[in-house]
Design a protein that fits this description.
Blueprint (H helix, E strand, L loop, with lengths): L11 E3 L2 E3 L4 E5 L7 E6 L3 H18 L4 H17 L1 H12 L3 H22 L6 E3 L9 E9 L3 E4 L7 H13 L3 E4 L6 H10 L9 E3 L4 H9 L5 E5 L2 H10 L4 E5 L5 E4 L5 H13 L11 E5 L3 H14 L18 H16 L3 E4 L11 E4 L6 H4 L6 E7 L2 H9 L3 E2 L1 E5 L3 H10 L4 E4 L15 E2 L2 E2 L4 H8 E9 L3
Parallel strand pairs: 7-8, 7-10, 8-9, 10-11, 12-13, 12-18, 13-16, 15-16, 18-19
Antiparallel strand pairs: 1-2, 3-4, 5-6, 6-22, 11-21, 14-15, 17-20
Helix pairs in contact: 2-4, 2-5, 3-4, 3-6, 4-5, 5-15, 9-10, 13-14
Length: about 475
């Protein structure tokens, strides 16, 4: 029986036990407003306290777990998700509104993320450092090793309910740290289903808790001094306020963006059109590295834009469970209303709509805007919607500056066959990643991923997350003489 088919709410996972609470949490289907997918519970303050206390106690065991045990647990989780791939994919589609093709891709990425975690658990190493750089340090050698830092507080978002949570859970397990995860309230059933797999992986009691909770209770995680690291993926407004209240703990923030892409005059246009249609409109643009701003060389503007608009109009908007659907619903009515307001503002400022532009219930069609001033909200802020603003350029360096004229710096894309332009963009753009001949929406799960400016701090990607979840300790060996 899947979480969506349960007649009763799905219990929550508290330090190795399944529990209920008086605070029932109903999960709605974004594609059918008012239709529940299922239900679970919000943790109570007492259950939160029990989870944190158990995590503190579990650290005495997890920090001593040998690499082969941590790796084996992660491989079991990866295999368990693989065995329930179709079930979990369908659940993601139901509770998040993600088209089933994209939902199954997310499951595949989750499988990979836990597998990479298993591999990284086996190669957390140190180094041998010669210390005899002067006469006073003769006969001394340094050995470094990474040690887990302690319980981790993790908060994951709705748009990738499995894989963005996996990017917190997998490195925590790999590095020997207990973790308390707050999954998104809009689609918590996915990770509670994964918790059924985690429960069979052989981890110590208290090593993992997956607890939906209210925002007020989640705020306790932020300031709770028993946690040694807070890892949060979500909006910049929320993330930076969390950092202010986090105290002495480490903080990793994966926040938003309004990703820009440059289509240079030397670009392969067929490839650029195909990839930017994916980068701009997949999951209704509700991806923090979704293409939002597009800068196209004027020499190819007419050709490119004609193909791009035609491609956008051909995208199929509809039921997330239909394998032919390209664009599903937005997550809720507030997201639809905000998107419509921003498109209307762009129009009022002189912008023109080449495709889409008008909401249809919980759906917003792929929308292409031109002639929009850079001061408009669709240019300055994160839209998190299926819309892209296109502008022509003549000078490549000016296009790079236009991409960089943003509060955000997550990833940027560049389609070009000019190597000098690729190197220039890599050198100049203040972003976490420059993706050449693909969209900024590209990510594979072992690469370093994160941003600068308002897009956050720290990096995910299993090996890089493990760096934040561990600390280096050196032992100096001296030869008596």
């Amino acid at each position: 029986m899947t979480a969506a088919d349960r007649p009763e709410p799905h219990p929550i996972y508290l330090a190795g036990r399944w529990v209920e609470s008086p605070d029932r949490l109903v999960v709605d289907n974004p594609a059918r407003a008012g239709t529940p997918v299922g239900a679970t519970y919000n943790a109570t303050p007492e259950q939160y306290e029990e989870a944190v206390t158990a995590a503190v106690a579990a650290f005495e065991r997890t920090r001593r777990m040998p690499a082969f045990e941590r790796s084996a647990a992660l491989r079991k989780i990866s295999a368990g998700i693989q065995g329930r791939r179709d079930e979990i994919g369908r659940l993601i589609a139901l509770e998040s509104g993600k088209p089933i093709r994209d939902a199954l891709t997310e499951v595949d990425r989750g499988i990979l993320t836990f597998r990479i975690g298993a591999e990284e658990a086996e190669r957390i190493g140190g180094e041998l450092i010669p210390l005899d750089l002067n006469a006073a340090s003769r006969g001394r050698t340094g050995i470094t090793r990474r040690f887990p830092i302690g319980p981790i507080a993790a908060i994951s978002p709705f748009n990738f309910p499995l894989n963005l949570a996996a990017h917190k859970l997998a490195p925590a397990i790999a590095s020997g740290n207990p973790i308390v995860l707050k999954p998104p309230s809009k689609d918590p059933l996915t990770m509670l289903t994964v918790a059924e797999i985690v429960a069979e992986a052989g981890l110590p009691e208290g090593a993992v808790s997956i607890l939906p909770m209210t925002r007020e209770l989640g705020d306790r995680m932020v300031s709770d001094e028993r946690f040694k690291l807070l890892t949060f993926t979500g909006s910049p407004a929320v993330g930076w306020k969390m950092k202010e209240r986090a105290g002495k703990k480490r903080v990793v923030l994966e926040l938003g963006g309004n990703a820009g892409v440059i289509v240079d005059r030397s670009a392969n246009l067929d490839w650029a059109v195909r990839r930017i249609l994916v980068g701009a409109f997949s999951y209704a643009g509700q991806v923090c590295i979704s293409v939002q701003r597009m800068f196209v060389h004027e020499a190819i503007w007419d050709d490119f834009m004609g193909r791009f608009v035609e491609g956008a109009r051909k995208l199929r908007v509809g039921d997330p469970l239909d394998p032919q659907t390209d664009v599903g619903p937005m997550v809720d009515s507030r997201a639809v209303a905000r998107t419509q307001a921003w498109v209307d503002e762009a129009r009022s400022l002189g912008g023109r709509v080449l495709a889409g532009g008008t909401a249809d219930g919980s759906y917003f069609p792929p929308t292409i805007l031109i002639d929009v001033p850079a001061s408009a909200q669709v240019c300055r802020r994160e839209a998190f919607a299926p819309l892209v603003v296109a502008s022509p350029f003549v000078d490549f360096d000016a296009a790079v500056r236009a991409v960089d004229d943003s509060l955000y710096g997550l990833q940027a894309g560049l389609f070009t066959n000019d190597l000098a332009h690729a190197w220039s963009a890599f050198e100049e753009l203040e972003v976490g990643g420059v993706i050449v001949n693909d969209v900024p929406t590209y990510r594979i799960d072992h690469m370093p991923y994160g941003g600068s400016k308002d897009s956050g701090q720290g990096r995910e990607g299993i090996r890089y997350a493990i760096g934040d979840m561990t600390e280096i300790r050196i032992m100096v060996l001296a030869s008596p003489s």
